[in-house]
TrEMBL record:
Pfam families: CarboxypepD_reg (PF13620), Peptidase_M14 (PF00246)
Protein localization: Cytoplasmic vesicle, Secretory vesicle membrane; Secreted
EC number: 3.4.17.10
CC cofactor: Zn(2+)
Name used for this protein in its record: Carboxypeptidase E
Residue ranges constituting the Peptidase M14 domain according to the UniProt record: 28-340
CDD domains found in the cross-reference section: Peptidase_M14NE-CP-C_like (cd11308)
Main location: membrane
């Protein structure tokens, strides 16, 4: 269901007034069974707007449960964007896990209370919440508890693999393509990639393949800053030196990071955990270079724009700190989610009004294309301004339009592609069997290894 999207400063005030009063008894750390019970309790309280599904299992067999919010759970509605929050990728960074459990409860409670801002979000967005990507690592960290948890204890999965260093490295291929004018989106995965990643990573990649996500955030701990792509530097590593690695969408990524930082109670102030980040944001590679991370993978393999949110100095804060952290992050979690409704969106049709999936949407001046989903709908995050946009698909003539994007809801821009005229095949020269007795060698395959 589509409703008019008009952000307002008053909405933030209403959100604060209508939120339930916070007390320390509302908050606790959730072991796996506790987390599952909490998620199913939300589903039981709001059965008509929620759905729980598993995207796979961890090394030790724990389900990776996702809680979905939508006015039509389980169904992608055309022109309704898909959004995801991912928490607890590092098992000992637990605040994101607890915030997402509380955020799920909050969405259900506020929807039932008639909060118009939350109702509009759920009616116009399909929201997916994965509180824990690394439940095995969490259990290792939780056995030590907040008082004795080490900096690395429980960080990795059950095989002690860092999941944020475990995605296929598409940056190297992207940086090569930048120099050779190659492909700028949906880069191919390397051969046998499924055997090279952990079960949790595999589950998340399959999840990305099954849902056309538009916007995402990945919740971490150990610092307080909104980190945006690229994480991996374009330059060879030099000890003690960092370099800014901008994406073609650097301006929108900076704005997305600022949205969270300034809606957060103290992130935007810059000084946190003994570090200073101007406006509370940083380019990943400018902070330190990281290979095989999830946020870069989202951008290079899918239509999804993802940032990494570092939310607490203490990786495993005590339960007594959770109420303050919730109040500090609540508005930011809502405001960031609302950003999925900016830019342009539309349908790509053929001459007979049949939707065209996998059509490419290119914006002049931004060397990163997105594609339409299987239902023919596309979503392109953009800042306010005037843009020239081209839609193209194999077998069709491309179509170009100019559109002006405002600061409010996404502008709808539909494309109707005409079938390309068939080309007459060139005559084939007679084959000289005497000169070609053997088959030609297959061309050498160049992959991102």
């Amino acid at each position: 269901m589509q409703q008019r999207w008009t952000p307002s400063w008053l909405a933030a005030v209403l959100l604060g007034l209508m939120g339930l009063l916070v007390s320390g008894s509302d908050f606790q750390h959730h072991r796996f069974e506790d987390m599952v019970r909490a998620l199913f309790a939300v589903q039981s309280e709001c059965p008509y707007i929620t759905r729980i599904y598993s995207i796979g299992r961890s090394v030790e067999g724990r389900h990776l449960y996702v809680l979905e919010f939508s006015d039509n759970p389980g169904i992608h509605e055309a022109l309704e964007p898909e959004f995801k929050y991912v928490g607890n990728m590092h098992g000992n960074e637990v605040l994101g896990r607890e915030l997402l459990i509380k955020f799920s409860q909050f969405l259900c409670e506020e929807y039932r209370a008639g909060n118009q801002r939350i109702m509009r979000l759920i009616h116009d967005t399909r929201i997916h919440i994965l509180p824990s990507m690394n439940p095995d690592g969490y259990e290792v960290a939780a056995r030590q508890g907040p008082e004795f948890n080490g900096y690395l204890v429980g960080r990795g999965n059950a095989r002690e693999m860092d999941l944020n260093r475990n995605f296929p490295d598409l940056n190297a291929l992207m940086y090569y393509y930048e120099k050779t004018n190659g492909r700028n989106h949906h880069l191919p995965l390397p051969d046998n990639w499924e055997q090279q990643v952990e079960p949790e990573t595999l589950a998340v990649i399959k999840w990305m393949q099954n849902y056309n996500f538009v916007l995402s955030a990945n919740l971490h701990g150990g610092a307080v800053v909104a980190n945006y792509p690229f994480d991996k530097s374009r330059d060879p590593r030099i000890r003690g030196r960092t370099t800014y690695a901008a994406t073609p969408d650097d301006k929108i990524f900076r704005q997305l990071a600022r949205t969270y930082s300034y809606a957060h109670s103290w992130m935007h102030k810059g000084w946190n955990c003994g570090d200073f980040f101007d406006e509370g944001i940083t380019n990943g590679a400018s902070w330190y270079s990281l290979s095989k991370g999830m946020q870069d993978f989202n951008y290079l393999y899918t239509n999804c724009f993802e940032i990494t949110l570092e939310l607490s100095c203490d990786k495993f804060p005590p339960a007594s700190a959770l109420p303050r952290e919730w109040l500090g992050n609540r508005e930011a979690l809502v405001s960031y989610l609302e950003q999925v409704h900016h830019g342009i969106k539309g349908m790509v049709y053929d001459e007979n009004n049949n939707p065209i999936g996998n059509a490419e949407i290119a914006v002049a001046g931004i060397h990163h294309d997105v594609t339409s989903g299987v239902d023919g709908d596309y979503f392109r995050l953009l800042l306010p301004g005037t843009y020239t946009v081209t839609a193209s698909a194999p077998g069709y003539l491309s179509s170009t339009s100019t559109v002006t994007v405002g600061p409010a809801e996404a502008i709808q821009l539909h494309f109707y592609l005409k079938t390309a005229p068939k080309q007459n095949p060139k005559p084939v020269k007679p084959h000289n069997s005497k000169k070609n007795l053997s088959s030609p060698k297959a061309p050498l395959k160049l992959g991102p290894r």
